[in-house]
């Protein structure tokens, strides 16, 4: 009964509106108290859950994303992309997706990119006749690629929970699937635009923006992923140190290159980054109580054995996990999902001898789909607010984007080398 109360209590607390972190800690603490197993160790469990060196990268990457958002990098990337693509039907949705992918190479946070790209692209797309719901759907889906394209906060948390998968290997493994996911989203976005006649077509004599000036303005944003990933590959710094370098690079661009940031802006950025990071790390710390409860109560092994005993085979289990995680991803953020479910999922992966780096990419792709799948899609919440529309209105359009992302997921699941080729080539595995 106690294991049942653990999960039932957690979901009841969520239904009552209790914050996720508090719900995880309360459910775990009550279960431990009823079991009578080491209740006085809860404070130590909370501390050890967050006292991990790689977690230092999270507040720095959050700060980096905010710095590049406020310094005008997104707007300059949009101008450069338009100069490359030109003005044609379907161009703006494609530009939004590509820019979101570049921003993913800087911040690693879907909601942050939804806000940054949405602030720039929404007005432009509405001006050219794209419906509000379509605009919100495309930008929200595009921002979901950010937890795949390195640096990724989700990958950092996964690496902490699964030590066999290093952060550099996960970052490298996310590159091809992240690009593949972005390209998959472009196909329905452009097709829907042309089918429904969204967007203006360039008129006779109308030229695209000058390419060289647009590139010159955007080059500092384009170089950010190169600095982060190049430094990691060159051994100049660890992933945690890379987060600090990225933040320093963003401050240099904002203060001395674009000159769009002031000391007052910096104070606001530090406060906001502390608030966002505090929420993430609090969830990580409190979720340690829930994870400890599942281990203490002996829940993990029976659940894993129960899934394996279904007799549906390797691919059947993988399909089941995909379905379950996409549904859970609609309601919980990626960090919480990893903290709750990885203790159960990793033994299953080990049973089938799945590569844990590839498995981490697959899990993250599932969570990315949940970020823009109604009714609780965190990315869509942000873009719908910016576009001035409702979540219900996006269902007509977002379904096509979900299907496209599932196609990318199926390819990576069927062809593991799409994720593992770069890590193997770079010698991370």
Explain this structure.
With 429 residues, this protein is an all-alpha fold. The protein has one domain. The chain is 77% helix and 0% strand. Helix 6 runs parallel beside helix 8, helix 7 packs parallel to helix 19 (378-387) and helix 9 packs across helix 17. The chain starts with a helix and ends with a helix.
Question: What are the defining features of this structure?
Answer:
single chain; 429 residues; mainly alpha; 21 helices
Q: Report low-confidence residues grouped into runs of 5 or more.
A: none
Quickly count the domains. Answer: 1
CA-based gyration radius: 22 Å
Helix and strand string, N-terminal first?
HHHHHHHHHHHHHHHHHHHHH
What is the SS-derived class? mainly alpha
Transmembrane segments: 51-68, 80-103, 138-161, 167-193, 214-236, 242-261, 273-295, 315-344, 356-377, 397-422
Protein name: TRAP transporter large permease protein
Subcellular location: Cell inner membrane
Pfam families: DctM
